[in-house]
Amino acid sequence: MRYVEMVLRPDREGFHPAEQAIVDDPELQRVAIHHLNQLDDGTIVFLYESRGPLDRARELMDDHEDVLEYSVSREGSKLHSYIHFRPNELVDALFRAMQEYSIVVDTPVECLSDGGIRITGMGDQETITEALAVVPDSVDVELEAMREYHPDDRQLFSMLTDRQQEILLTAAELGYYDVPREATYEDIAAELDLAPVTVGEHLRKIESRVLTEILPG
Known about the structure:
Blueprint: E1 2-10, H1 17-24, E2 29-38, E3 44-51, H2 54-62, E4 67-75, E5 78-85, H3 89-100, E6 104-111, E7 117-123, H4 125-133, E8 139-148, H5 152-158, H6 162-174, H7 185-192, H8 196-214
Antiparallel strand pairs: 1-7, 1-8, 2-3, 2-6, 3-5, 4-5, 6-7
Helix pairs in contact: 6-7, 6-8, 7-8
């Protein structure tokens, strides 16, 4: 089985009008999709994480008739949403490709600030290649990695606390681990409303935990 990590970026219209409204709203920020499922009637359910004002998130859901049912609650700085919606043609095509070619999506799906998503899928190499070939032209696909799947890869991430996962994902998205480095503790702290020293402490703990797990002996 192969493990593929890729970034999907839609055109200016986005994946779906309801989600694009979140992307375009200066008060809200998408974080991750923790669960996604297409029901027998073709509608889709997301468990969605975002940040921003609770009332604003609810207003946007109310504004879109394709959102059939939703629930949004706050936990600290996070908004957790259950969203049951009717897919548009693009979203339906992406789900059909996953189902037709038996691609297993490993959650969480990371939401990027430019409206794209970073998604990890699993399947054999032939079916992954075939599935990528039928992705609609309105979506740009950037393949970041493809290798043999080892369950321990994702278990490392799950060993981190929720706060550590949030900081690590934000650091990666802002370019902290790029070469050359494009973000500082201060940049990450400003994004998460934390003190830079707190960010530094968490990143050192994360790096220590990961290195402890992967080094022999």
